[in-house]
Amino acid sequence: MMKFSRRLVLAVSTALTLSLGASLPALSADEIVIAGSLPLTGMFGFAGVGVEAGIQDYVKMINEEGGIAGRQLRFVYEDTAYKVDASVAAFNKLNSQEEIHFYYGDSTGFAKTINPELNRMGSILMAGTSYASELNDPATYPFQFMAGPDYTEMTGILLEYIAKEKPGAKIVLVNSDTEFGRDPIAGTKARAQELGLEIVEEIITPPTAVDVSTEVLKLRRARPDYAIFHGYLLAPIPEFMSQAKQLGLDTKFMGTFWSMDPGSWAKVGDVANGYMGVMPYRYADDEADDAPMLDRIRQMRPDYRSTPYMQGFLTAMLFSEAAKRTLEAGKELNGENLKAALNTIKDFDTGGIIGKPITISGNSIPVGRIYTYNAATQKMDPASDWISLQE
Amino acid sequence: MSDLLFFTEVTLAGLGAGALLSLTALAFVLIYKATRVINLAVGEIVMLGAYLFFAFAAGLGLPAWVAIVLSIAGGGLVGAILERGLIRPMLGENPISVFMVTIGIGSVVVGLVELLWGTEPRALPAFLGNQPIFLGEAYVSRKIAIAFLVSAVVIAGFVLLFRFWRGGVALRATASDQAAAYSCGINVPGVFSVAWIIGCATAAGAGILLGSIGGISPAMGVFGLSALVVVIVGGLDSIAGALIGGLLIGVFEAWAGTYLGGEYKIVTTFGILIAMLMIRPYGLFGTTEIERL
Amino acid sequence: MLIGTAKHSYRADEALLTTSPQRLWMAILLIALALAPLALDNYWLYLACLVSINVASATGLNILTGFTGLVSIGQAAFMAVGAYTVAVLEARTGLPFLVNLVVGGAVAACVGLVVGLPSLRVKGLYLAIATIAASFILHFVFVNWQSVTNGNSGINVTPASLFGVELTDYVHLYYVFVPITALMVLGAANLFRTRIGRAFIAIRDRDISAEVLGISLLRYKLLSFAVSSFYAGVAGGMWAYFFRVVTPESFPFIYSIFFLAAIIVGGMGTILGGVVGAVFMTLVPELLRFAVEWLTTIFPNAVTALSPIRTIVFGALIIGFLIAEPKGLAEIIQRIRRFFHLWPFRK
User: Transmembrane region positions (chain B) (predicted)?
Assistant: First the structure.
């Protein structure tokens, strides 16, 4: 019996070695490598899938145009199921196989965990799904950035809009009891005070909350003009909206980037009508004149409309731009040079992905626009012009 | 609006949420009563029930009532398979081992649901209507009111069954003394199967209600943990305990969430649990186990 | 073939390694552990460090659950206590990191004592549920005790340093973690050669009988909780130096179940079991990653199936071992050992 086992062990180990060997792609000094920990599965799966498609498409586009200074882009990634330890494992695995220039991270936890390692290595520029306010600090996070406004800046843009529409409005903040959810609370309160807006109630929902009846009662007691939700992908916002409607409240419901996907809202139905929120990018079906890049996207993905796609696409564009500027200056591709090149981006035209030329002076791009969901067309309609917090 | 009215509304909402907890707790109690197994996979069966409803109602486009019947039956079938295939071989083992097997089952169910339906949260097709309900002046969310009514009917039904139905009496007999039940000619393994089938079917039904309120996702099984607290507080083998424990926890959670803040909900629940374990370890209505050497 | 072992003293009978093949294998293992970093790349070193942390914590849980019979589903929460202690000490005191680890363990042990209190009144499933409750309450403390834990965003940990070297490379961490874990495992093995260890086992086998024999349940049950939490605390401290950021979400409830699963799969109530189980359960998800990668050559979409497959395999391993091999991997290893003992006389 043991003989058989030993043979088996031998066979298995040979197979393993072979498959290991096979999975190591040939290294090429000419390539520029974008690696990523993507949450393709898990509660954040919809983001990972969209981001993957976005980066993939941009890479394909650039490579078809001949790459960056003749060097081809390559995108490698692993699924992490939105778990920090899996994400760190993926980072280490990819790093031991490739010479990586750019990394796409999947969560705030990962961005914070891997930051000391990034600083130590100094060879990688990283962006990701996280817009955590804490990451918007070039001193602590020198080799990271986010392709949009941080969460506090997102609510800041909402407040800016509210202050213009209805000065002195009453606002309720609804946040989930997670790191993600609590991120902008302090900043939002401070900003609201500056703008003369009144925060009349703060509601925290436990992450496992199913029933929100008691929270809706609190909302009704406060009778706000606006309720700003943050820390949710979708649920429980629809339940809040439907109960508020039953109660005859005329509160306007608002959210931030990760709850702005019209595809998700389409499944909710009529209740979703009138939901508003801040969006840093144009939607793929926007046929604005100054958006040639959106035409390209529609050619590549005729019926794909997810918001993470736009985020991934723009992130890849900024990665490429940083690489291009670094190579043009004749410098080596490392974290410091790439970040410096990224920070030289001034009044940059994104091809219409963002409706305004962008300038990246730190770790974020504090620009966004307010959209309103229209249940009849299942689309997000612009409700404001582009708002920038840089001026 | 007066504070008293607000308090009444919050309490009503808590009672509604508590009724859902009671219903899920009932699944724990039914299985524990007959087989002395704490089935930690109840939360995952709840989730599975909601997904089955989703598949039948949204996927196949069946009418809501057909989908409800089919998902409850599906839950029962899963219960039967689990009992026959995985729990029966563990008969007579250390209760902790069986408990761990159910944790394993929970993990497998989550994985299978993720494979079949993906991991993103979804909404169930609306079938409960959305006309608001007012009790006097107090507002009650319609879904919560329906959940309350359904739970009340189901629990009342079970109480009657245990009192008058032959199978229910057999189940009670098995619960009080397995060996004696055997010698009276009761088919004890049959009772085990029935308990699992009914328990899992109840859980699946609770899942449909839960999913229609808060949407569905593979992670919704954590609701089972709150229900577990309910059964510990109420007593593991007491149906009345499940009912009263559920309502109690629901109301306390609602009060804590309203007057202290949402982050205090979970800690209140588990605080009650610890206090209960220290004061009355076998719950409000549970049978005290006496150990002899 | 090994015919028999004649022992002339109790000392020899109690020795940890009783036969020369055992000593030889242990020597080979130690040498292999010492030389492994030469052969491993960064990814495998990362996994080796993670394995080492998990082995330390699983061994602790094994003392409590496998040897004393008190089931705990709160091991990750105790790790979190250790990790937070280390993070706070590192940020505010600048004590040497070995001291921090020990203090982290000690604080976790104190918390363990408190959490162990219900064990005097309830046992079995009720106790397991009390530990679940404790871990959720601890999570609440981590989120809301802002002034110490920095709430949801957690604490960043500066790297440990030893003899002036900053421990940032996985190689360095490996050479620190593995000896610490080895010492902890050795300590656990030795514990069961003492009165305390035997008292634990007596309590597991029948606590009322043990009490009749004069073993103070109060003392030994709480002691077991304290020792186990100490192990978890030190492991959590290593975790903090390893990942260098500690947040309330770093130690999810599922991580506690992971440790329970590890000792079930490895074999409860044997030191070897805790070690093997932790190694096995840490590496299986990573090996599945390679399996799925290989599958992508056939099914391009297999990548998205990785996480569900991991969840299913995790559950299936628990079920499979409990039904088919309740004594775990340690028993399988023993069987292989017996085979070589008797070879070639028994098939």
Answer: 12-31, 38-58, 64-82, 94-117, 144-165, 186-210, 266-285
Write out the residues of chain A at the interface with chain C, using a CB-CB cutoff of 8 A: 1-2, 16, 19-20, 22-23, 40-42, 45, 49, 78-79, 81, 84-86, 88-89, 92-93, 95-97, 109, 112-113, 115-117, 120, 132, 134, 177-179, 182-183
So what's the pLDDT on residue B213? Answer: 84
Asked whether the beta carbons of residue B214 and residue A205 sit closer than 8 angstroms, the reply is: no
Query: pLDDT value at position C347?
Result: 55
Q: In this structure, what token pair is assigned to residue B82?
A: 């689990």
- The single residue listed with the structure tokens 């229910």 is B168
DSSP three-state, residue A200: strand
Q: What are phi and psi of C116, to 5 degrees?
A: -70, -15
* Nearest beta carbon to residue C118 from set B38, B277, B291: B277
* pLDDT band at residue C297 under the 50/70/90 scheme: confident
User: Which string of b and e fits B106-125 if b means at least 16 CB within 10 Å?
Assistant: bbbbbbbbbbebbbbbbbbe
Q: Is residue C19 part of a domain?
A: no
Contacts of B249 in chain A (CB under 8 A): none
Min distance C48 CA to chain B CA atoms (Å): 26
Which pLDDT tens digit goes with each residue over A258-282?
Answer: 999 988 888 888 889 999 999 999 9
Identity at B65, one-letter amino acid code: W
Residue C14 within any structural domain of the chain: no
Chains with 3 or more CB pairs closer than 8 angstroms to A? B, C
Residue of B nearest to C135 (CA): B270
The two tokens of residue C331 are: 């028993």
Q: Which residue has the tokens 């109790």?
A: C10
Q: Which of A19, A78, A92 sits opposite C46 (nearest CB)?
A: A92
Q: Looking at the domain assignment, is residue C33 inside a domain?
A: no
Number of domains in chain C: 1
Q: How far are the Cα atoms of A110, C277, C291, C340 from residue A13, in angstroms, in the given order?
A: 33, 20, 13, 22
pLDDT of residue A20: 44
Question: Does the structure show a pLDDT above 70 at A18?
Answer: no
Contact residues for B70 (Cβ-Cβ < 8 A; gap 6+): B52, B56, B62
User: Are residues C136 and B38, on separate chains, in Cβ contact within 8 Å?
Assistant: no
Tokens (6 digits) for C195: 């009165």
Residue of higher predicted confidence among C166 and A334 = A334
C336 in any annotated domain: yes
Q: How far apart are CA B268 and CA A321, in angstroms?
A: 52
**What is the β-pairing status of strands A73-79 and A226-230?**
unpaired
Per-residue pLDDT of chain B (293 residues; tens, 9 = 90+): 578 889 999 999 999 889 999 999 999 999 998 888 889 999 999 999 999 999 999 889 899 999 999 999 999 999 999 999 999 988 888 888 898 999 999 999 999 998 898 877 788 887 777 777 888 788 888 888 888 999 999 999 988 988 888 888 888 888 888 888 889 888 888 999 999 999 999 999 999 999 988 888 888 888 898 899 999 999 888 888 999 999 999 999 999 989 988 889 889 999 999 988 888 888 888 877 776 66
Other chains touching C, judged by 3 or more CB pairs under 8 Å:
A, B
Domains of chain A are 30-148+287-360 (3.40.50.2300), 151-279+367-388 (3.40.50.2300)
Structure tokens at B77: 């079938």
Write the pLDDT tens digit of every residue in A355-390: 999 999 999 999 999 999 999 998 999 999 999 998
Task: Extract the runs of DSSP E, i.e. beta strands, from chain C.
Answer: 155-156, 161-162, 165-166, 245-246
Contacts of A240 (CB under 8 A, 6+ apart): A174, A212, A215, A216, A219, A227, A229, A253
Q: Return the residue matching tokens 């144009």.
A: A282
Q: Which positions ≥6 away from B110 have C-beta within 8 Å?
A: B44, B47, B218, B219, B221, C308, C311, C315
